[in-house]
What we know:
5-stranded antiparallel β-sheet, single chain, 4-stranded antiparallel β-sheet
Amino acid sequence: xxxxxxxxxxxxxxxxxxxxxxxxxxxxxxxxxxxxxxxxxxxxxxxxxxxxxxxxxxxxxxxxxxxxxxxxxxxxxxxxxxxxxxxxxxxxxxxxxxxxxxxxxxxxxxxxxxxxxxxxxxxxxxxxxxxxxxxxxxxxxxxxxxxxxxxxxxxxxxxxxxxxxxxxxxxxxxxxxxxxxxxxxxxxxxxxxxxxxxxxxxxxxxxxxxxxxxxxxxxxxxxxxxxxxxxxxxxxxxxxxxxxxxxxxxxxxxxxxxxxxxxxxxxxxxxxxxxxxxxxxxxxxxxxxxxxxxxxxxxxxxxxxxxxxxxxxxxxxxxxxxxxxxxxxxxxxxxxxxxxxxxxxxxxxxxxxxxxxxxxxxxxxxxxxxxxxxxxxxxxxxxxxxxxxxxxxxxxxxxxxxxxxxxxxxxxxxxxxxxxxxxxxxxxxxxxxxxxxxxxxxxxxxxxxxxxxxxxxxxxxxxxxxxxxxxxxxxxxxxxxxxxxxxxxxxxxxxxxxxxxxxxxxxxxxxxxxxxxxxxxxxxxxxxxxxxxxxxxxxxxxxxxxxxxxxxxxxxxxxxxxxxxxxxxxxxxxxxxxxxxxxxxxxxxxxxxxxxxxxxxxxxxxxxxxxxxxxxxxxxxxxxxxxxxxxxxxxxxxxxxxxxxxxxxxxxxxxxxxxxxxxxxxxxxxxxxxxxxxxxxxxxxxxxxxxxxxxxxxxxxxxxxxxxxxxxxxxxxxxxxxxxxxxxxxxxxxxxxxxxxxxxxxxxxxxxxxxxxxxxxxxxxxxxxxxxxxxxxxxxxxxxxxxxxxxxxxxxxxxxxxxxxxxxxxxxxxxx
Length: 816
């Protein structure tokens, strides 16, 4: 079993599964993206910028952290202390830890805000304030030189790298400053058409990543690739069928400058300030942050926009046009301005951190130029810097709205799985968002112990409450819901009494469990004895729907209405042994099933997955207090799981490992035909599916196209996790052609046919039929790992270009 939860309230789901067997049973937390494990947190409000500083230019570790506020600058110094390691085998074993303490850097102006700070070539530290640039020697931290802007102007933006400093002032003035021995010397300057919104430098000598972020204002986790159709890219030209471009590899120092008036970016040569390329970014927003980063040996320019978009260009050299910005990609990563930092990880190479309300890491797939986007589990990060210390060589520092977080990042992989060992067998799980808790139905591994209902903390997964079931009682289903007459969240549990002398249980219970998060206590509030196993439970418009052996029964909650709807007030008189006047009352039932194995609801409709009789669509009629059958699939499918996409289309899986879709035949003029569900799609999955859950592991945001695609997660007995997503007719037709083309180009392992593997076998038939109305997403995504020559063959077969196919496949890939 599994449930899908959004613990951080960010719109990104996480799967929590019941896995393992016996004493090796565990909960597994499966999430998409990158987790940050905090090592230290400081309460800091109003932080506008931060930079990490080394004690000397060639040092491996950082010594200072500079924090900029609205009208002042603070500095923190790193100190390493030795502590006894109680876990060490050697009694004299020690471990080092890092401490941060306030300090002052003698050559800094601490009474002004800082626009830029960083290490410079020659063992110098540079601080730029709105009034001047200050060069400080690392050896004694004393001031060596200053540079001030022209009279009646102030510095707006600054960036330094190697021995070059680029400054933009309020008078549309752009200046290049060079460190000449102990002095700051102005090499060149120019007048721009408007004020500068952002700037960055690139020097090919060291490939140093920016160790800072500029002062910025505020900035959907799921990225949506879109083509800029109105943009003319100065770049790729084809002459005689060959592309005359190559990745930029020149030794010239470059600067990228974002402008307010043109809402574009220009590339300048340093120190001549000659314009080498110019690009419009489109839209109404401007570039608030820029970053150069060499990903997969290709120099790329990242533009963080004020509306939360991230635009990426490849910097290339053209035989006739010179320097160009090509292959633009637009990705919506948030809704607030994006702040960019390029950093290098010793194990995984170069990355770009895009800080906004949905922080995202951008990097390249191994041996591939394809960009990957992974969300970070922080609610809102304004800035990020690399902060390397002896005890944490890969640490990162994040500035949020009200804190400074120093921690380490997980490996850059698509899915992360955390294991919580239980020492007993978990069978069912559900989550209660209102109390931030999980209910887990566990079976004891000891024969003399009874089975239990355990409640776990939603953040730590620690057991905080336990209810012991009766002898021979096993929990079979569970659900968290609030009733129509009482919105208080309750856990609903369906059980069965397993007796050795019975082939099928003849007795079970429906339990209503109340959990008090204030006291960390739980009690059984009400129970109903049933004549059989309660196989499944679901919420039908505030009423409890239960599948009990061969029938489906509906219950309503009979409880006095509370005047106070706050959960805290309801738990004021809570006591574990206190009896309740509330109870479950049967409303109606529906017979005619072999075993009502699984349920799924949508409004007043619900489907029943039967052990032997496929799927039936039923509806509850409030006026008559009855359940009526609307339609049925007359095939003899032995169901394992079922779910409703809406009140017309349903998904199911059966014991022959087929995934199929059913649709109501509303267009038929015959009453008999309308009573039959049509099988409109079928696909051989090759896995035994035991649960569908609505949800997604990707970030859900209103602006994201991929987020708006309805999806269902499923889990199998072999531990496989999959997703089924709905497609428009246009998307389906394109991807179906692409699937067919890949089949022609890519041969199966050992000469086996992948197309044949996905074909299905109808009951009583011996001939395989090709899958219909399903797309094999795993096969489609194989296109991204094909060699360029094979990519072109596939694109030629469907009469389009590789770029178009890549755009469609990458968009589809981001659904999961």
